[in-house]
């Protein structure tokens, strides 16, 4: 083996490898080719094994040629890699393409349950008259639910509220939102303009118009002067807001121990099927109740009202049976979007 023969081998390898490199079809194939040519046990190294047979003077010369061939092949491999990986990237982008404009599964849009929806409507109207929202408590005591509201322990009017008592003596589930009046008065003095929405409970047989749990919104205004006419004006606006601008209200005499005088309030609107319908009780706050709330009835007076949310929701939406409010049947609830 002489210098010329070794050099020829290297040049042949170079020419041959250049063709194979440019023919490599993938980066994986190129990698393999690259190490079979240039690697530790690659073709160039193989050829250079013959170097030992050369005269010492020729060895560096063949080293120069080998480095040149190595550098040239290395450059072609790199160039080919750039070309192949650009193509492979495009191909991968194409393969993994996601059409972001394809419509996804439609979301199920929820809606407010008609009870909170009705409470929200009442709140919005009343807040335009400066009433703020407060909450009473669902577990009450006999004193606040009854006695401070001027309903003595063995007064026959107690029968108006069929009460669910708790085991703890004197504790009960509130039968109406009216005890919130006492708590509001005790918590801060007049002027007071508050509405108290919430859940109430009565020991009652359930039918289409009675539930053992139901909702009321209590209203209370206490100031230096507040009249039955103010009450009528505000309730008129409330009725118009809930049942349309042609709705009208009327007062009938009523009885509640915590108001004097007391009224039952009826509403009617064009197209209402049943004529006048009673939607709430109201009246001027009884002086004893003001006193129980820590307010001097000589200097202040007020009015209060309590309305049944279920009844109003039923009238607004033409719902015939209030049990539907408790059943959580999505087919029913989806009707209130
Ligand atoms: N608390 C009464 C009830 O549950 C409703 C009521 C009537 C509330 C007259 C009032 C009122 O504030 O003035 O039947």
Please sum up the structure shown.
This protein has 337 residues and is of the alpha+beta class. The chain has two domains: 3-95; 114-334, BirA Bifunctional Protein, domain 2 (2-Layer Sandwich). Helices cover 42% and strands 19% of the residues.
Describe the structure.
The protein is an alpha+beta fold. It has two domains: 3-95; 114-334, Bira Bifunctional Protein, Domain 2 (BirA Bifunctional Protein, domain 2, 2-Layer Sandwich). It has helices at residues 3-23, 27-38, 43-48, 59-95, 114-127, 142-145, 179-187, 228-243, 287-292, 309-317, 324-327, 330-333; strands spanning 132-133, 139-141, 171-173, 192-201, 213-223, 248-254, 259-268, 277-285, 301-308. Strands 1-4-5-9-8-7-6 form a seven-stranded mixed β-sheet, with helices on both faces. It has a two-stranded antiparallel ribbon with strand order 2-3. It is rod-shaped and about 130 Å long. The chain starts with a helix and ends with a helix. 31% of the residues are buried. The protein binds 3,4-dihydroxyphenylalanine (DAH). 3,4-dihydroxyphenylalanine is lined by residues 176, 178, 218, 256, 259, 281-283, 304-306.
Order of helices and strands: HHHHHEEHEHEEHEEEHEHHH
CATH superfamily of the largest domain: Bira Bifunctional Protein, Domain 2
CATH architecture type of the largest domain: 2-Layer Sandwich
Characterize the overall form. rod-shaped
CA-CA gap between termini: 94 Å
Low-confidence stretches: none
Number of domains: 2
Helix content: 40-55%
CATH class identity of the largest domain: Alpha Beta
Given helix and strand content, the structural type is: alpha+beta
Main sheet?
7 strands, mixed
Count of helix runs: 12
The total count of strands amounts to 9
